[in-house]
Amino acid sequence: MLPVLFRIGSLRIESYYVIWGLSLVVMILWTRGRAVKRYAIDFNDATEVLQWVMIGVFVGATIGGYVDHWSRYAASPVRLLYFWESGLSSGPGFIGGGLAGLYKLRKLSLSINNFAEAASIPCAQLLFIGRWGCFLEGCCLGVATDSPLGVRFPRYPLFKVYPTQLFESFAALAIGICLLVIERKLNRGPDESRRGAILWPLFLISYGLYRAAADFLRSGDRIFGLRVGQYTGALACVIGLAWLVISLKNLGVMRDERRSDS
Known about the structure:
Blueprint: E1 4-8, E2 11-14, H1 15-37, H2 43-68, H3 70-75, H4 90-107, H5 112-137, H6 164-186, H7 190-195, H8 199-214, H9 228-261
Antiparallel strand pairs: 1-2
Helix pairs in contact: 1-2, 1-5, 2-4, 4-9, 5-6, 6-8, 8-9
């Protein structure tokens, strides 16, 4: 819709990079603030972990972009060297960032659960803001449709497509609001969160289910009939369910211990 925000001479300031960059900055600062104030993680430790997370996000999202458009690179393998053309894929980006963050948290002997809780709501916000960059750029398109929900992008004027970028944006907003309500209702301290994460598993489950279902409306390359986002969404859902079960079990044990002490 608006791929170029403005120009400075011959330099193009593109909507996609500005909005995704803004969303990443907000996510980093918000996660760090929550980690320090709400989950008792040292400021410098939180900063160091987030640096690793950002590197992992970039690597994972870039690799995901290659896989997301595998037919392009199968036709011309030399284009694998042009990493700036790969685009970015959010699902593999989350996997890359999660693995890098997990590595650094273990190295620093920090609570994985507490940091994950701190990142849960900011990650939903990241998608809420960032997908507007995709919408303005005209990437991550939906399949063609005659539905009233269809949108006609300037670069594809002959047909309407589902605005799947906005579908995901509003889904992420709803997920973030629900997590915020749950967090305030539970009102858990860092000691309880350390024994078991609740918000992060719920984020993985809800976002994973959304991607697994909604990516049928997305256009693009498929592997065995499914998009990369559907595979990563299903994986996120499984991990989230397992994480939630373990957390609830650990929290149950903690409550039993408190009753026995009293």
